[in-house]
Amino acid sequence: MAATTRFLHTADWQLGKPFAGVEDAQKRALLVQERFSVLERIGRLARDEGAAFIVVAGDVFDSPRPMPPVIAQACDAIGRLGLPVYAIPGNHDHGGEGSLWGTEFFRAQAADLAPNLTVLLSRQALEREDAVLFPCPLLQRHEAADPSGWLREAGLEDGRDPQRPRVVLAHGSVQDFDGFHDDEEADGGSRNRLDLGRLGLEAGRFDYVALGDWHGTKRVEDWAWYAGTPEPDRFTKGGDHDPGNVLLVEAGRGGTPWVRVLRTAGIEWHELDWDCAGDAGVAGLREQVERCVGQRVNRDVLRLRVRGSIGFEAMTSLEALMESWRARLIRLRLENEVVLAPSPEELEALTRREGDPVIARVAARLSELARGPEETAAVARQALRELHRACAAG
User: In Å, what is the CA distance from 12 to each residue of 31, 167, 232, 269, 371?
Assistant: First the structure.
């Protein structure tokens, strides 16, 4: 009878990612730290679900030469996972010349803090009692040849127990994924192409392919999945992107693997487009944002695109909301196209101030200019806003 094994599939941790686009240093540090904190959640899930081991399909680190404190913290977090961990280098932390994997510092830290970690730098099978792992590490950032090509010639019956499931670890693209990267990403991503169609998976040569590189959880075939990054790290383009998960896998020799998605995200990334469409739209916007982030503080990132035309009081309310969201969110990335358009009642309150004829005349003139060419109109609208504030304060 064929044996089965249960393990956790994860990838794209990118520990040490700097999040340079977040201006506030304190909030930037929260995002950096959360990439380490998620490893504790991964370990807890793996143990609770009865996983025998964990595979990391590339990009443990965000760069091939992370700073020593990042290496030490990573090894400490990996050591606390409580299970064997098998990792391959990806495009961010490739295993070629100049990478961290061969340095004395990494080896010493891993030996002291993470004896459960095995970094698979060679394209040769690793045998466990319950599975055989076939790693396809990236030995440079961008490889011209298919990193999984060696599997087509691999001898699979050279004395190995034919009943143990065969698990491939690979990092790269199996198709063109439009919208993979946030527009803040400096690098266009991995160019390492994987041709799964030539591995004989349909014929049962392998039982599961643990993929990394695509940052969302994605089923490619029943036997091939991207785990995605366990902690979201960017705004995305495309509707099928689902970051913030790991995969619990149960695989047996010659059968269809059982895969379950487990949520691990600690910080949520949201995108919202909103048309205020009048003063009532500000209240609607507030409801939408609260629906996304609730009462949480420093646990959410929001990209907000807002447009529309609103009056004086609504603009004041909107600015107060923005100030509150900037304080509560890790980051508010704002695209604000809202235009000040005072209501007839608000304009009348300024232009017909019988007890203050100077203000009335100024307001009337500004109101006239606000209907002119856009460059002049924008200045006039701002001046009307300041006049309204002064009158309200007085």
Answer: 15, 18, 10, 17, 53
Q: What is the pLDDT of residue 186?
A: 47
Gap between the terminal Cα atoms of the chain: 86
User: What is the residue whose two structure tokens read 């830290």?
Assistant: 109
Q: From residue 158, how far is each of 154, 155, 251, 293 by CA, in Å?
A: 10, 6, 21, 55
Degrees (nearest 5) of the Cα angle 387, 388, 390? Answer: 65
As given in the structure block, the two tokens for residue 243 are 């970051």
Residues of the chain with pLDDT under 50: 1, 158-159, 178-184, 186-190
Per-residue DSSP letter, 93: T
The Cα–Cα gap between 72 and 89 comes to 17
Rounded Cα–Cα distance for residues 122 and 120 (Å):
6
The pair of three-digit structure tokens given for residue 287, joined into one six-digit string: 């409801």
Look-up of token digits 């459960």: 116
245 Rama sector, left if φ>0, alpha if ψ -120 to 50, beta otherwise = beta
| Distance from C-alpha of 100 to C-alpha of 61, rounded to nearest angstrom | 10
Number of DSSP helices (H) and strands (E) in the chain, helices first = 8, 15
Q: Which is nearest to 218 in space by CA: 259, 264, 266?
A: 259
Q: What is the pLDDT of residue 345?
A: 72
For 33, residues 6+ apart whose C-beta sits below 8 A from its C-beta are: none
- The model's pLDDT over 147-158, given as tens digits with 9 standing for 90+, comes to 888 888 766 654
Q: What is the pLDDT of residues 232-282, one digit of tens each?
A: 998 876 556 789 999 999 999 988 999 999 999 999 999 999 998 878 899
CA distance 291 to 265: 18
DSSP 8-class letter at 343 = -
Which 3 state secondary structure label does DSSP give 361? helix
The DSSP element (H or E) to which 107 belongs, if any, is helix 104-113
